[in-house]
Task: inverse folding
């Protein structure tokens, strides 16, 4: 399947999920992320703010705050086609909604990339080697390719979004370290960045 076909299939699947099933399965997926050693060890976690059909990440942000972690979320500069991490202390205060349900902070402190220990990333589909199909705009690939970013890359989705086939790749695609669904945790075989030994 091409990326176009994968996107169409997954959009149809996500649209068909009932709100009750989405909520129940989102809680299970977020619990699975929170149980990883990577999340446990992270001090600063960057988490996407869910669009209407994506896994709801509010439970994960709340868990991070309960555990004494700092939370950053993406703020997009559409003109420059880039995003920056902004620290938040509330999921409601100081937010704006743009486009089809995309929420982001209006203001806030921009977090240096080197301080982000883990990033939780959305997508439409993933394979077991860590590659993902996003919405086609390349925001996350550009963000993750920055040299200062050395954090753990964790994709979050529903189990049906984890495909049994390899996803077609392009040179700019950056693989994930972890893929987490409501059913399983996949540790991907090859980190995209060679990390220096401690």
Result:
């Amino acid at each position: 399947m091409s990326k176009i076909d994968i996107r169409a299939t997954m959009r149809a699947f996500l649209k068909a999920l009932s709100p009750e099933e989405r909520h129940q399965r989102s809680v299970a997926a977020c619990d699975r992320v929170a149980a990883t050693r990577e999340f446990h060890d992270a001090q600063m976690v960057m988490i996407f703010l869910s669009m209407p059909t994506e896994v709801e990440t509010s439970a994960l942000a709340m868990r991070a705050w309960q555990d004494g972690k700092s939370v950053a979320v993406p703020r997009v500069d559409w003109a420059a086609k880039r995003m920056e991490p902004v620290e938040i202390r509330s999921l409601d205060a100081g937010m704006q909604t743009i486009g089809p349900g995309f929420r982001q902070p209006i203001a806030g402190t921009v977090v240096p990339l080197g301080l982000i220990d883990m990033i939780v990333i959305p997508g439409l589909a993933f394979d077991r080697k860590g590659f993902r199909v996003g919405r086609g705009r390349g925001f996350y690939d550009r963000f993750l390719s920055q040299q200062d970013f050395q954090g753990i890359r964790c994709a979050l989705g529903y189990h049906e979004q984890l495909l049994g086939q390899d996803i077609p790749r392009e040179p700019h695609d950056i693989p994930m370290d972890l893929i987490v669904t409501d059913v399983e945790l996949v540790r991907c075989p090859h980190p995209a960045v060679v990390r220096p030994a401690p």
